[in-house]
Amino acid sequence: MSDSPRRHRVLLAIFAVALLLRLAYGLSQDHDAVFSAGNDSAWYLQNGIWMVTNDLPGPPTTAPLYLLFIGAWQRLLSPDGSAIVAIRICQAILSTLTCFFAYRLAWSASGERRAGLLAAAALAVAPVFIIEAAQVLTETLYIFFVMAALWLYVDFAAPPAAPDRTPWRALVAAGIVFGLATLTRAIPLLFPFGLLIHLLLLRGWRRGLVQAAALIAPFVLVVSTWTIYNLVAWDTFVIGGDGFASFLYIGAREWEGPEATDQQLAEDVPELSPDELTNPDRDDVFLTGAQRAISEDPVGYVTRRVKQLASAYLQPHGTTFFDGPSLKDMARDWLTDDRSLNGLRDLISGQGFWPKLALYLFHYTALVAGAAGMWITRRRWRSTLPLLGFALYTTLVHLFLLALPRYLFPAEPVWWIFAAAALVALWDWAASRRVSARQTAGSAA
Fold it and tell me: Residue 410 gets which letter from DSSP?
């Protein structure tokens, strides 16, 4: 059997494992629990059915696409557990397709198909991606669109080969999918404009500007549909989504819950009335509060932002899905106060220890090996720069806005793409050392 058919079978096996794991986990969950009041899923579900039935009580405070996605299933199957089953099956499929995009992008970034297979396998079995596909939250749909757009852009819209050809359809398709990602979560609103720099480096000023226009124009058209809807339906101007001002303010202070935020805002903007402070449309109030919080202690602001961002990177996303005390706190307590075998036994037998440990191992492998892979693949910048750009863009956005592990999680597939490149390079280096050692031993004999 030739190498290529064998690898095709390996790839199909990876996709099958990814889908089965996601379906097995998602369909084993309590489908009614997501309707419990007080969690984000219940909020999305309620606003989703309101959106598709045109019963929203006021302007939506988030990007619309995920609301439409889950609202459509509730309208089709009735808003109960059957709709949740359908949502989880769809998200399992979308998450599996994300493994394919990781495979293609890792192959392009490293020039090694083995790196593509490793990236796809890592996403297929990584616990956080399996768990996330079962959550009624935006992450799975958002990551699917972002990875699809990056794949279209890297492999078709801006490939290093054929620099004299303008791939109009690929540029337009990538722009549309970037627009869909922005209508799922508004965070990548400025990212396609950053790709202008990449196209200028690849194609030169004149052709780069033309190709950037072919990417950005459809992106703007897709995103503008939400702006037009809000202007017509609510007489409100929105680009992508609402909430940037509030996240900026929360980032300037500390997140301690909505009531504490409202109290802090009243202290920062004391000249406003209680009605103005509680008005849902209070972006100007948040911006004023953020400006004052930053200006009164700029050094403290920078320190808080860097510490919060670092903490969000060091804490894997997904540990909150498991009950029990913090694994990080438990390990720190054992190292500082105990260090006994009985304490170690209690640590590893604690509630949620092993799944949380798996989350930590996968997360830190992605970060450490990913950073190494970014350096190793630096000469292939024509393919890697958009991926590096997305990881950096996500980081910089949350350096200024609220930074949580969940908000940084959409960049994790990119970290795994570079991690796969580094791990394959490490394997090849180790193999060459073994061959060299055998040759040296043979010569000595």
Answer: G
Which of 204, 125, 192 lies closest to 163 in space, CA to CA? 204
Write down the mean pLDDT value for the chain.
89
- 180 or 287, greater pLDDT: 180
Residue ending a domain, choose from 348, 366, 388: 348
Backbone torsions φ then ψ of 255, nearest 5 degrees: -85, 115
Cβ neighbours for 346, distance < 8 A, ≥ 6 positions apart = none
Selected residue with higher pLDDT from 1 and 19 = 19
Q: How many C-beta atoms lie closer than 10 Å to residue 258's C-beta?
A: 9
pLDDT, one tens digit per residue, over 117-166 is 999 999 999 999 999 999 999 999 999 999 999 999 999 998 876 666 78
pLDDT band, very low/low/confident/very high, at 257 (cuts 50, 70, 90): low
Residues 6+ apart with CB under 8 A from 161: none
Q: Which residue type, as a one-letter code, is found at position 101?
A: F
Structure tokens at 340: 């006994």
Least confident segment among 48-52, 318-322, 369-373, 383-387: 318-322
Co-location of 333 and 358 in the same domain = no
> Between vectors from CA 167 to CA 166 and to CA 169, what angle results, nearest 5°?
135
pLDDT at 391: 98
What pLDDT shows up at residue 272?
65
Q: So what's the pLDDT on residue 429?
A: 93
Same-domain pairing of 146 and 36: yes
| Alpha-carbon Rg for the chain in angstroms | 24
Question: From CA 436, how far away is CA 428, in angstroms rounded?
Answer: 12
DSSP-derived secondary structure letter, 338: I
- The Cα-based distances of 149 to 142, 145, 190, 212, 324 in angstroms read 11, 6, 14, 14, 38
Place of tokens 């301690």: 256
Residue with tokens 């720190």: 332
- Residue 263: domain span: 245-348
Same domain? 261 vs 175:
no
The total number of structural domains in the chain stands at 2
Integer Cα distance of 44 and 66 in angstroms: 8
Residues 196 and 64: their CA atoms lie apart, in Å, by 26
